[in-house]
Design goal:
single chain, about 425 residues, alpha+beta, Ribosomal Protein S5, domain 2, six-stranded mixed beta sheet, four-stranded antiparallel beta sheet, 12 strands, about 20% strand
Length: about 425
């Protein structure tokens, strides 16, 4: 009998693209947030060998390039199992939509395989496999609100943001993440001539942002203690003086299903931007936090439509994003009023989006697909307190203060002939509970 799981989507709360690394990947920084939209995954284990992918959507690959196939094959080898695995994908999420659908499918398949075989991989092994398959696959081994670094394969939990009403607009447009990176390089004058990665699906939907140990707050300390135990990090770390952020999120202990980053540091200090933060002052000044949303090696198009822009250096832009996130975590975001009679615990998401965080992909995707820019404007005019492209698109989301206002906005999008779904963000607790419901 097959085991059925939900495979959730994600959005990006800000995404900055950094310099091209020697390995051909871009440094990225972002805040991931899981949402309730999902595909359905059914996994059946039989006698024999091999992995079979079944899906009625013709856009979903059924061969070895499928992320589910690649994760399951690696997991079977790591578990020392001998079996045939049949994976059925009921596709509800868009392909090339920037919602991490394929990556979430892969993690759901891994979890279903472990449960069926009654065997579990250690957390670090899970993340190692996930990071080999896709840059944003590891995100779905954490869930909730997540930071990550590098090309997106290193992920770290953040104190959860409250569940928030969300509208996701899904235009019938497929945006190529490799091309979006190529266009970014053409716009900013990045080095040319890099060979495209043979693992093209590494970057279908990846993103992440780093998390320094000192950024943990009192509210989330229990969760991070569990994280340390799971990853083998030293115990008994002191909560940061960034305790002002403690109101930003409920304390959510990690569930047994959560993994860790394959690239996570096991030292007391997380190494970020090539150096170690030794003091709270350094954290405030440097606040480094890298993300990843489909970062992938690419070859710049010779006929790029975007003129080269004079922009701040990659390191300056990365540091600025880091300062924003650090200030948000510490509860010292300047210029963000707290409504009278309400504490910061009720406004953490508003605090974050009011910092002016943006998705860099909008600067290259919107000129090519102006209809996507218009969808964002419709959401903003309909009352979204924040609207953005998710990943490299084409999905556009808007966050709303109530379900009612979100439903009204979705109706306006549908009147334009564009699919729009009202949903909500998922906390880490909700994410792990609903996967198996």
């Amino acid at each position: 009998m097959p085991l059925t799981l939900r495979s959730f989507a994600k959005i990006n709360l800000g995404l900055q693209i950094g310099a091209l690394r020697p390995d051909g990947f871009h440094e990225l920084r972002t805040v991931y947030q899981t949402i309730a939209l999902h595909d359905m995954i059914r996994v059946r284990v039989e006698r024999g060998t091999g992995t079979e992918i079944r899906c009625e959507d013709p856009r979903v690959p059924k061969d070895k390039s499928n992320t589910c196939y690649r994760v399951v094959e690696r997991a079977i080898a790591a578990l020392g199992a001998r079996c045939r695995v049949v994976i059925e994908i009921e596709k509800r999420l868009p392909v090339q939509g920037g919602l991490g659908g394929a990556s979430g499918n892969a993690v759901a398949s891994l979890l279903a395989l472990e449960r069926t075989l009654k065997k579990r991989l250690p957390g670090p092994e899970r993340l190692r496999i996930a990071s080999e398959v896709g840059s944003d696959v590891p995100l779905f081994l954490v869930g909730g609100t997540v930071l990550g670094i590098g090309r997106g394969e290193e992920v770290y939990p953040l104190p959860d943001l409250p569940s928030t009403a969300c509208v996701v607009a899904i235009p019938e447009i497929g945006v190529s993440t490799p091309q979006a990176f190529a266009d970014w390089g053409g716009m900013t004058g990045s080095p040319q001539g890099l060979k495209p990665s043979s693992h093209s699906d590494l970057f279908g939907t990846a993103e992440a942002v780093p998390f320094h140990e000192r950024a943990r707050d009192r509210a989330g300390h229990e969760a991070f203690a569990d994280w340390d135990a799971m990853t083998g990090r030293p115990q008994g770390l002191k909560p940061s003086s960034f305790g002002a952020a403690s109101g930003a999120a409920e304390a959510v202990p990690f569930h047994g299903e959560v993994g860790i980053s394959a690239g996570a540091s096991t030292s007391r200090e997380a190494n970020i931007s090539g150096s170690t933060w030794d003091t709270e002052k350094e954290l405030a000044e440097r606040g480094s936090a890298r993300t990843g949303e489909g970062a992938r090696p690419h070859m710049l198009s010779a006929d790029s439509r975007h003129p080269k822009l004079t922009v701040p250096s990659s390191s300056d832009r990365m540091n600025e994003f880091s300062r924003i996130v650090s200030a948000w975590l510490s509860g010292t975001v300047s210029g963000v009023p707290v409504s009278k009679g309400r504490g910061r615990a009720e406004t953490p998401l508003l605090d974050l989006v009011r910092t002016g965080i943006e998705n860099d992909f909008e600067r290259v995707v919107f000129p090519k697909y102006p209809e996507l820019r218009e969808v964002k404007r419709v959401l903003e005019r309909a009352g979204a307190f924040y609207a953005s492209l998710s990943g490299s698109g084409s999905a556009i989301y808007g966050l709303f203060v109530s379900r009612t206002s979100a439903e009204k906005a979705a109706a306006k999008i549908r009147k334009q002939g564009i699919r729009a779904i009202t949903t909500s963000t998922l906390t880490r607790r909700q994410y792990w509970k609903k996967i198996f419901d």
